[in-house]
């Protein structure tokens, strides 16, 4: 461990044992919840995502239990946990795709548990998403794939010739930003995995998101490409002030590329704290139940 102290205490009920990393200067009062502690630089801003005491159940099975999470402008937060711990479910909760049984979820001004008529569309337009398998349309050009990001807020647009010059200019600027403008006319399927993920990131930016969720975005990439994609996401968080929540399986990647780490175990938040105050030993309890998951530890 670093010089930080790790304490084990109950968050709000004795059933919720939470490892909380605290520095003297950042020590929080006992009423605050662990997922809420932002890094010092961003703690003055209002959170763009605010989750309180969230529970999600599929039929009779509870898969998230009393989760708290805030995401502040400009920060990259890594979401860790063994397979089945609830990472994807937490992400899906933020865009109205999970059966929330208790708690509150606010995302970019939307009350996800109580959306007004038609608000689901604006919510999903405000949240850019990046997936493990990129989810591009393989036969369409890189440029068109990026342009589809503009469809989120705009409603039905004819894919052929339906985009404005301004949209096209912006798509090209975004491709330039992610380093693949030279591939604009190539079919998406002709790109490498790392390049396809850059296209997916440009597509997410095309919808001018207020928050970005990246669910295992580098799980299909080799380590070098994984580093570069995570560097790109962190740069977007920092430069554009868009909070990025990224779920990861590989601890060193989380330690190298995040400002904070949130760790789930069996649907409960077990670890939360600034990345600078965490190390592999502090995160190991997240994977206690895994028999052999080399990825998680190397
Ligand atoms: N649609 C669903 N219906 C029933 N159970 C579900 C559904 N989606 C997820 N679950 C269950 O919820 C739990 C959490 O799943 P989730 O996909 O959120 O975990 P995860 O941490 O993202 O796992 P992984 O790292 O393997 O992707 C699992 O036990 C899973 O089987």
TrEMBL record:
Annotated Basic and acidic residues bias: 19-31
List, for all copies, the residue spans of the domain called ABC transporter.
49-291
Asked if the record carries the keyword Translocase, the reply is yes
Which UniProt keywords are listed?
ATP-binding, Cell membrane, Membrane, Nucleotide-binding, Translocase, Transport
Name the SUPFAM superfamilies for this protein. P-loop containing nucleoside triphosphate hydrolases
Q: What GO MF terms are annotated? A: ATP binding
Record-linked Gene3D superfamilies: P-loop containing nucleotide triphosphate hydrolases
- Composition-biased stretches, type Low complexity, lie in 1-13
Read off the SMART domains from this record. Answer: AAA
Q: Where is this region: Disordered?
A: 1-38
| UniProt-recorded name of the protein | Phosphonate transport system ATP-binding protein
């Amino acid at each position: 461990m670093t010089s930080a102290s790790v304490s084990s205490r109950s968050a709000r009920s004795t059933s919720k044992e939470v490892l909380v990393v605290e520095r003297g200067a950042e020590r929080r009062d006992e009423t605050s919840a662990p997922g809420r502690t932002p890094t010092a630089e961003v703690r003055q801003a209002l959170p763009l995502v605010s989750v309180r005491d969230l529970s999600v159940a599929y039929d009779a099975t509870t898969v998230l239990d009393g989760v708290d999470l805030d995401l502040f402008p400009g920060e990259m937060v890594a979401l860790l946990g063994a397979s089945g711990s609830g990472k994807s479910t937490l992400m899906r909760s933020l865009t109205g795709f999970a059966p929330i049984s208790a708690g509150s979820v606010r995302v970019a001004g939307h009350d996800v548990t109580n959306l007004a008529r038609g608000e689901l569309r604006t919510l999903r337009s405000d949240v850019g998403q990046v997936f493990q398998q990129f989810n591009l349309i393989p036969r369409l050009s890189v440029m068109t794939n990026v342009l589809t990001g503009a469809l989120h807020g705009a409603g039905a647009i004819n894919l052929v010739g339906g985009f404005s010059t301004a949209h096209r200019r912006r798509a090209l600027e975004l491709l330039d930003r992610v380093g693949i403008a030279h591939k604009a006319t190539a079919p998406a399927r002709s790109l490498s995995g790392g390049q396809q993920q850059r296209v997916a990131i440009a597509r997410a930016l095309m919808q001018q998101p207020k928050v970005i969720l990246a669910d295992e975005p580098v799980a299909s990439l080799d380590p070098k490409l994984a580093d570069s994609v995570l560097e790109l996401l962190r740069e977007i968080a920092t430069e554009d002030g868009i909070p990025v929540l990224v779920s990861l399986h590989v601890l060193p990647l989380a330690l190298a590329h995040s400002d904070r780490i949130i760790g789930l175990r069996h649907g409960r938040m077990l670890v939360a704290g600034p990345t600078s105050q965490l190390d592999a030993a502090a995160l190991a309890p997240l994977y206690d139940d895994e028999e052999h998951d080399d990825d998680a530890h190397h």
